[in-house]
Amino acid sequence: MAESLEYTPQRAQELKDNIEAVQREIQNARSTSCRLVPISKLKPASDIKALYDAGQRHFGENYIQEMADKARILPNDIQWHFVGSLQSNKAKLAASIPNLYVLETLSSIKVADLLQKSLVERTTPLNVYLQVNTSGEDAKSGLPPLTSSSTDGELVDLGKHVLQSCPDLKLLGLMTIGAWEASHNTDMPNPDFTCLKDTRRQLVRLLKDIPGAPQEEEDLELSMGMSADFVQAVKEGSSSVRVGTRIFGQRPAK
């Protein structure tokens, strides 16, 4: 039986109030635009439909099967962001979602090649962010960041590979998941956000001679900031923030 997309007026109003509160905080933090991506992990498709009916079009998921299932029954003009770790054996499934707007967590040439191989029927390139492990935590995915003295590295190699060998992938930006401690201390600049901005600067410098490469820092988006620290991320220049619990409430255990 297909999951129901019906929602109560009360739930719709709650979600609308929550997303409008987040949008106000984003607007108050910076005059220029920043994309808001509600992350609906483990929440019902009806919640997404309620926000869709209120005008929201970008949504994100952490599990690729959950995204595929929801994409199948929800309106096809939703622009999906995949923000979880993508295993190589799930690349084909990700590529099969026609309205996947961006894969935010690309961190290997192997997955890039598998996506490229699986995108033969897609009419437009799939946007990708390269995931950077700015905090250096073993539990987090992503490639090491760049420093001002970097001349190469895994991130540079992956960026070059996407530009030179994956015509159906578009290098759209960089993404990070910051450390918990930094995310909950808003009294000073977030070191993970500073690190991602510095990495972007160096990556643009090291890729700029490759055909199709970004020429200016602003040509690469930054996806940084979640429910606890999105206001700080917006103030520090994030292009896109990923907000889950502030909009949908606490999630059930998986």
Automatic annotation (TrEMBL):
The keyword Lipid metabolism does not apply. GO terms for molecular function: pyridoxal phosphate binding. The modification N6-(pyridoxal phosphate)lysine is found at K41. Pfam families: Ala_racemase_N. Residues 13-252 form the Alanine racemase N-terminal domain. Its cofactor is pyridoxal 5'-phosphate. Keywords: Pyridoxal phosphate. SUPFAM superfamilies: PLP-binding barrel. Belongs to the pyridoxal phosphate-binding protein YggS/PROSC family. NCBIfam families: YggS family pyridoxal phosphate-dependent enzyme. HAMAP family: PLP_homeostasis (MF_02087). Pyridoxal 5'-phosphate (PLP)-binding protein, which may be involved in intracellular homeostatic regulation of pyridoxal 5'-phosphate (PLP), the active form of vitamin B6. This is Pyridoxal phosphate homeostasis protein. It comes from Naematelia encephala. The lineage of its organism: Eukaryota, Fungi, Dikarya, Basidiomycota, Agaricomycotina.
